[in-house]
């Protein structure tokens, strides 16, 4: 455990549920942990006891990617954890594949078609998922993504070719989406199991991320907005090439700073913890440090996003990790550029570089 983790309280220590099993972490709230085939090798999903229109059952929060391993684990949960009761709805925090990938399948009752229920999510997440599932590559890959990262200094032709050929990556993890959904909005109160969970939207990591906070029990299902060990990825992607997601993310963190420090935070990755205000402070300090590194580098000479990546990420990166690293480097550059601290130029080689602000025309 690193020094920052010592500042947080992990009430369950290293106890965690095995895949296909559930662990109760708050009254009526159960933790599922499913495997992912990535460097980030797991996702936490949540089952909440519920009742809708007199029907007892369960609300599922987040789903996992479309993989045989996760389907098998869900089937075990359906058969052995639900006490013979149905799933009544599926809430998805955001559009990334590990969260929405199996939403269509779970809404339809799994392999045995046990029920047919509604997906609940925000407009921004539902629409972004539909765009990306269309298979045009979008942010995940394709010619547009390759051109975007090439403009920002990625010049390894093998990596660019992998990106060009990655047009079906999102669709392979999210093969279908429900045709209909129920919209969630900021500050909506969702009644789950007789308690009110308030929708807390967040920006920067995804278009309109939906966390859920129950003041009565002091429990926050934080999705990817507040994670205990790693910082949330905040990236500039091809679809919105002049965006400033880091500014949006840092602003969104303010919505969690008013929550009590002893709030039980249920994150999508890592272990449940207490110390939400401490963790927000850590995240702000982390980004402040990265921004300081970027300022210093750009003061010395013009920097592309590819130049910044080794400053922020000290390990070897595969193509999947590189897209996030490039996007994150660019997010830090854009915050400073759009704040007027850096200027942006495009060199004769077509690469965009950032330098200490002189002429602030953009």
From TrEMBL:
Superkingdom assignment: Bacteria
Gene3D superfamilies, alphabetized: Ribonuclease Z/Hydroxyacylglutathione hydrolase-like, Winged helix-like DNA-binding domain superfamily/Winged helix DNA-binding domain
Domain Metallo-beta-lactamase: from-to ranges: 42-269
SMART domains from the UniProt entry: Lactamase_B
PANTHER family, A to Z: ENDORIBONUCLEASE LACTB2, METALLO-BETA-LACTAMASE SUPERFAMILY POTEIN
Annotated protein name in UniProt: MBL fold metallo-hydrolase
Organism, as annotated: Paraburkholderia agricolaris
Lineage: Bacteria, Pseudomonadati, Pseudomonadota, Betaproteobacteria, Burkholderiales
